[in-house]
Here is the input.
Amino acid sequence: MNPVSIIWKFLVTVYHRLGSPREFYQIAQYTTPIFGLLSLVLFVCGAYLGLFQAPADYQQGDSFRIIYVHVPAAWLSLFVYMVMATAAAIGIIWRMKMAFVVAICSAPLGAVFTALALITGSIWGKPIWGTWWTWDARLTSELILLFLYFGVMATYHAFEERKTAEKAMAMLAIIGVVIVPIIHYSVEWWSSLHQGATIFAEGGPRMPADMLTPLILMILSFMFFYGYALFLSAQNKVLLNERKSQWVKAAISAAEK
Amino acid sequence: MNTLLLYFKREWQLLFRNTGALIQPLVFFIIIALLFPFSLPAEITLLQKIGGGIIWVAAVLASLLSLENMFQSDYQDGTLEQAIIHQRSLEMAMLGKVLAHWSATGLFLTVFSPLLCLTFNIPSEQIWVLFFGLLLGTPSLTLIGAVGAAITVTLRRGGVLIAIIILPLYIPVLIFGAGMLSQSAQGLEITSQLYTLAAIFVLAITLAPFAIASALRATIN
Amino acid sequence: MTALAATHKTDSDQCLLQGHDLHCVRGERSLFTGINVTVNRGQCLHIVGANGSGKTSLLRILCGLSSADSGTVLWRKQPLANNVDFNASTAYVGHKDGLKNELTAIENLRFQQQLEGINDEQALDDCLAQLKILYCADLSAQALSFGQRRRLAFARLLLSSKASSKTSSKVLWILDEPFTGIDIHGRALIEDLCVQHLSDGGAIVMTHHQSLDQSGLAKYRSELNLEAHGGNL
Here is the structure.
């Protein structure tokens, strides 16, 4: 057997196991604490290095340190959207129950990351730009992304029948993927028309390693946190969706003992 | 006869029987635009400057208003079910319907927009820019909006939800349509914006019919 | 050998619609499980069951409007999804009449005829006359009574069945409570149409809350009781 076919077989097995709610639940019971622990360790290291070891910025002083929250949150806000849309597409094409659960559980998490990026961005903007909000392209796209997340969540909750809600929500998430790049570029074009270059000049000074390392640690920590929160809320959702089935009843009575 | 034409014709036949639906978006459009002067300082130059943007926002709201009814009545009387079951392509049928819808709202608004421009004292070169911008932009608005209307067709009160999910998707059209005006006011070329609006339209008319049809098939069951 | 092959061929020709192990969940409730149905030419499948037992849900699964939670539906041995032959061969009359209120009776029919790609004014009148509603031809559908609307829906069914007979006929009729709101004469008319359709080699799937024992359809029908397949929850 060549390695490619072995890897393929492995992936197919993983796919099928994760596709069944019951197996997903069991796998998630192991992965959830691992992800949580990894996230916590990375967070402590990243926060320590970022807040106490990294030198202050020669222009912005200590206020630059908010990037250790802002950049990971902004990065995750897009990453979560891609995960959500991919899961939605898998759910629509292969009619996989768990993919819908992953997509639905991702939406509020993505919205929280987006909101966090917006809030930290505007807190950072106050000392640097002298204002809480400017119609900067990145800030504006981020705000629109937040509304897309709201739309996906609102669609899911508007339908009574769960299967219809899942499909409608998935459609909207997929449509968003087509439109998000268009929105991003049009907003960029628009803001270049309205205001000059901001403090983030292109090709500006590169970040020294002792500032960059904590940033990477924080991004990884945020990603593991997303994985942790996703598994946790997906487990919860699976229990709710399958509450009439035998294995959930057995799991509940086992937990009560 | 061609499926698209057949549905286009039927939709117009229905609109003629129900003239309220035909006229309401237009009246709404004009009223929204005329509200702005009352809420702004009385300066002719200010209105001249922002009048184009106001007309664009009014056009977006008017096309949004007419979306909720686009598939709703067909869903309630069962003709949508029949269209889904029929061997004729649902994509083409719905495209015909949406285009008829656009010609009854977006096209009407575009035709009447020069009149509004006059009330805002917008110079005549700008009127043409606005006219062609609306002509190229409103079909995209209707096509994108129709996808939202299809997703929410089975909901009894889907109006607000349509607005929430569709308005963010309208932003690119708004940016380039209204951006064209401020460009031309500064005496700059506007061809790149026209091309972008045309590209968005081509993308919308290619993808929207499939999105509409699959949304209808998925939510009606 | 040839004889065997011949019977085999007619067998597969006879069998139009098959459902295997159909399972349907609505909300949190399992409506039915393990439904196996076969609809042959000349057969009227009568789905019975109490209110809320899933008659309409099953019907909509069988005509491809909704999909079963598990199990498959086959049309002439082919899956139902995106099956143009199935769509061309099936006509459906549901709870909703599928008529536009703004159009007159005859305009509603004309649109259906145009969809089938035919232009024959006489056929429109014939269909209306067959259901004894020719006098309603120029009334808008909004002005019709409930019973008249049902009759008009059947006129449309008849029209699409007749119209497409040149290319591919609508061999399968799927009817949801066809006799609701219709008077005795109307019911007799519709039963006659159904019997005619069945004896021409068509097939029918219908829901109806009463037994068909006393009707003209008795000798064609086979019964499927959903209560025997009730969900386990």
